[in-house]
Amino acid sequence: MESYLFIDISDRTYAVELSKVDEVVKIEHFSKIPGSPNYVRGFFNLRGTIVTMIEMDSLIDKDKEVSDFDHLVVLHTRNNDEDKVAIVAHQIKDVYNLESEHIQDVPDAEEEAFKTFVKHMYVDNERSAYIIDIDNVLDLKED
Amino acid sequence: MNEFLELFIQESESNVKDFEATLLKIESNYTDEQLISDAMRFAHSIKGGASFFEYTQIVRLAHSLEDILTKITKNEFTIDDTLFDLLLAGSDLLGRMVYDVANLEAYDEESKELSNKLSELQNRKLGNDTAVVANQVTYQEALTKGALVYRYNVEKSNTLTTNLNMLKDVAEIIYIDNDAKEGDITPIIFVTDLKKSFIKALFKFDRKDMILIKEDEFNEFFKGVAPVQTIEVPQTEVKEVAQAPKETPKKPAATQTKVEVEETVKIKVKVLDDLLNNVGEIVLSRNNLSALVGQGADKSTLETALSNLTRLTSQLQDQVMMTRMRKVGLVFNKFPRVIRDLSKQLGKKITLEMEGQDVELDKTIIDLIHDPLTHVIRNSIDHGIEMPDVREKAGKDGQGIVNLSATLDSGHALIKVTDDGAGINADFIRKKIVEKELLDQASADVLSDSQAINYIFEPAFSTNDEVTDISGRGVGMNVVKTNLDQLNAQINIDTEVGKGTTFTFKIPLTIAIINGVIVKFDDHQFIIPQSAVKEFVDVELNDACRVDKSKDVDFLYLRDEIIPIVNIFKLANEDFEERSLQDSKYVIVQSGNIKIALLVSSIEKIEETLIKKLPNVLKRELYSSLTISSLGEVIPIINTEGLLKLAGINDKQTRKVEKVDEEIIEYDSYLQFIIGHQKNLMIPVEKVERLIKIDVNDLNRVLDDTFYYVQDTQYKVIDVGEIINLESKAEDGFRHLILIKGETKTGILVDGISTTVNIPTTVEVQTVFKEGLLGSLKGENDFVGVAIDTDYFLRKGGM
After folding, report:
1. Does B620 contact A142 at a Cβ distance shorter than 8 Å?
2. Nearest CB to B524: which of A34, A45, A50?
3. Does B628 touch chain A (CB under 8 A)?
């Protein structure tokens, strides 16, 4: 059993392993930088560290329009020289302990881009969520 | 994680490094007992730590290594390359195991195998190796191997064995008695070109026991000797062993965990104490300041308190930077091994010289120069240094030299890699540039030697036809550039064909903080490093410059320079509002010899900016790094060199290639100028040396000729209007002088410059039979221009 943080982004609910979340923050100010990939909303200053803001919607569906957001889920980097990354979230729901038996692969029908960042999903009687593949989000590079 | 384990891993990593370094020293000097006992100590420490954690694989290997080292001192077996290959392979394996202690089982077989080979090596019977040819040879046959034949009577001992191994390098041993026992006096017969005194000095042979023998003595000696079978030295088998560890290391299964170790640094206690004192003072100073604010103190009192705090903060900054300083030696010490392995692999003879290992640099620099240096050094070994026979033919010493040095020079660290190899042939690079379709032939031809050579840093550029382990994929040199860009460093290549090449990295020391100019474009802020900023230009306010729109690049005419205009939004492929280039502000940015005019909305201020790493999602050509401003905003720092590349600007801006209907059309650029009512006169841009706006009163008339001085150079001025019968309409007494490139110092006087036009190279000139004119050219949109005959004016200028 592992703890997951449930967040809403647009019309989907996602789950992020709690062990891979550093903190959830609200910010007042961020910078857009020309030449950023479309899935990068901007960059903000988290106590002296620059954090890249990732828009899951645009990452998965290139044509998605960006909307206002409430929170940023700052992810835990695997080592120090890695870029600090946060996922833009529209709503933070709660932390749940998920039974691994309810975790399944995403259906084949989902498009390629989606499956790069969301490999598994959780479904039981009460709730369901797409589980974000954090490592692939951390590994994003300019293309 | 267990803190003892962490400590063990850290210590062992450093011990393995020292062990390797010591082995390399021993290889060239294996009689030095101090070195050998050092190496044994390192192996022993690793063994001790590992046995505490019951890492049997490490213990076993460390023990074998220690064991064989003990025997080197006792001279119990032969010392040769195979031994060192095995020892170094052992050190590598130790390193890998220490780094991956969680998965030691994966290394079980490999470590066992290596330990076995090590003990096998020790068991090689002493003397086997020295059992050289004892076949009967005639004196004449012996003479084919050298001019002088010696007989040497000597007591058989361990020292002799070692000496004989060395003797084999300089002489051919004809006879040796393998059956002789320790202490027996035995004759050795050998042939060499070396003089007696030299041999004596080299091996401390006793002179009176060594005699030069003639043919009859030689025959006499061999009369009584029965031919002995040549004893084969079992070398081949061992060689294979030495290579065994080079096989791909068995990859631990993905599920196995890796023990992670936090990176740590050692700091002098003194530095730490100073830091603590300073922080204490800062706290006091802050309390003082807040008390003053609470009392409602006046501005000047507050400013005094603030300046005290400012001083302490910058002290703190310096002290923290001090804790990050590391010796360059940390990086350099890796290279003796690289050189040893590579030169063996390639069959080259190379000496590595190192200077300035004690120079201290910031940790970031140390971390980032490691890869570039490795690539440059590998490149020097692979491409630079030639094979020994090639070198000798070229009159050089067969032994090549690679020199690695670090020095500090006014705010910069200079790291140089020099080799005395073949040098880089610029023509060869040009050929490759065209082959790899990086440029067309014409563009490649106009590159200067140094520009051409800089292409080796392009991705996928590799001059080595065969891809080898060492280099040839063209990836390496690109890494060099990328890493050094992150440090804002410059790379310089000095090369002379046949003499060698020097790569110089010029790295700014204070990489963490630079002075930056904050500019705005619409709502976005950017920082340009102040060192790259030449000047600010406000076209509206400044009469001396004008803007010209041409086909694909807009130009800013600033005084006598034509500077391409760069719009960063365009380069970033972002939407932007078209604006009048005429009423804008520009920052003139210089990178190398090239200047660009960066379009901005406003220039905000100059600020000390702290450099932060550029996230991977951003384009490295656009930005070199990010920073956090004094207001806490994230602002990108512009990569000036990258911008030039993105904008496709090089210092030959005369020819532009454009894609139209998937067909590449080449254009010639012409500068369009005005005389009187004639507004469509043109001169090829490539013929223009300089443009100057002049006051007609500054012209010097001597008899019938007119001259103008640019600095100390005298130019003959020819009024084009007079030649082609056009009346000047310049009113305010200012006219333009176009200096023409050519043999003679000639300038032509015109009323004004209007723009540059591009005309496809395929358009033919419709000849006009008029002195000074070449003919008319039809451009796009019904434009027809009249080109002047520059050669005519150059001839005129010479008269």
Report:
1. yes
2. A34
3. yes
Banded model confidence at residue A74, pLDDT cuts 50, 70, 90: confident
Q: Pick B626's closest partner by Cβ from A43, A81, A140.
A: A43
Nearest by CB: A33 against B616, B620, B636 = B636
DSSP B455: G
Q: What angle do CA B163, B229, B80 make, to 5 degrees?
A: 30
Smallest Cβ–Cβ distance between A83 and the set B260, B574, B616 belongs to B616
Residue B330, pLDDT > 50, answer yes
Three-state secondary structure call for residue B280: helix
CA pseudo-torsion sign B451, B452, B453, B454: positive
> Which tokens in the block code for residue B139?
């004196």
- Smallest CA–CA distance from A44 into chain B, residue: B634
B427-461 pLDDT, tens digit each: 888 888 888 777 778 777 877 788 788 888 776 66
- Residue from B617, B620, B635 to probe the interface with A (highest A Cβ count within 10 Å): B617
Q: Which residues of B touch A58 (CB under 8 A)?
A: none
> What is the distance, to the nearest Å, from the Cα of residue A50 to the centroid of all Cα atoms in its chain?
17
Dump pLDDT digits (tens) for B385-424.
Answer: 888 888 888 888 888 899 999 988 766 788 999 999 888 8
Residues of B in contact with A79 (CB under 8 A): 260
Residue B307: burial class (beta carbons within 10 Å; 0-12, 13-18, 19+): exposed
- Are B747 and B796 in contact by the 8 Å Cβ rule? The answer is no
- Closest approach of chain B CAs to the CA of A95, in angstroms? 27
Question: Kind and range of the H or E element at B693?
Answer: strand B688-695
Q: What angle do CA B52, B58, B60 make, to 5 degrees?
A: 100
**How confident is the model over B177-199, as pLDDT tens digits?**
766 666 777 777 877 777 776 67
What are the structure tokens assigned to A97, written together?
């302990």
Amino acid letter for position B603: I
- Chain B residues in contact with A38 by the CB 8 A cut-off are none
Residue B280: pLDDT band (50, 70, 90) is very high
C-alpha–C-alpha distance, residues A3 and A19, integer Å: 8
Q: How much is the pLDDT for B526?
A: 93
What pLDDT shows up at residue B283? 93
- The alpha-carbon gap from A116 to the nearest alpha carbon of chain B, in Å, equals 17
Q: What is the mean pLDDT of residues B83-87?
A: 83
